[in-house]
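2024-03-11 09:14:02 INFO worker-7 job=invfold-0412 stage=load source=structure_tokens
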């Protein structure tokens, strides 16, 4: 449709240029050699060549931006954490054969025994911190 409209407009424009020349050539006086007819024919030929080449030419190329496919970000959700009870490790209390010396508290032998036996022994209070997190008095016997 677009080509048809262009051709029609150009044809009308060419006719508007060529037709008035015939009127002036024939209107006033007669020429013996018909110079005006030759000029009108040359103008019509040139206009026809221009219009025909405009219609027959391919359309101008259309440049689009380079088409690049961009992969969208994947919908990834981290899985919810699974809460499992952690095993609680409790020390196994085995009866240990300890020789009881029957040491009296606050004696130098008692201090020596309790500090060797318990790493958390506090000589100021005579207590140590047990596996349950509480303070216990050192009984040497």
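2024-03-11 09:14:09 INFO worker-7 stage=emit residues=141
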């Amino acid at each position: 449709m677009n080509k048809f409209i262009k051709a029609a407009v150009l044809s009308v424009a060419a006719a508007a240029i060529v037709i008035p020349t015939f009127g002036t050539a024939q209107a006033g006086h007669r020429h013996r050699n018909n110079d005006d007819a030759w000029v009108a024919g040359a103008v019509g030929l040139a206009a026809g060549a221009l219009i025909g080449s405009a219609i027959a030419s391919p359309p101008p190329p259309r440049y689009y931006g380079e088409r690049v496919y961009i992969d969208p970000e994947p919908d990834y959700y981290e899985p919810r954490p699974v809460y499992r009870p952690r095993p609680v490790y409790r020390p196994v209390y085995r009866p240990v054969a300890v020789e009881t010396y029957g040491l009296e508290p606050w004696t130098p032998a008692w201090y020596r025994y309790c500090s060797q036996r318990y790493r958390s022994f506090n000589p100021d209070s005579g207590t140590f911190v047990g596996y349950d997190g509480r303070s216990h008095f050192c009984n040497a016997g």
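2024-03-11 09:14:09 INFO worker-7 stage=report msg="Helices lie at 2-27, 35-56, 108-117."
2024-03-11 09:14:10 INFO worker-7 job finished
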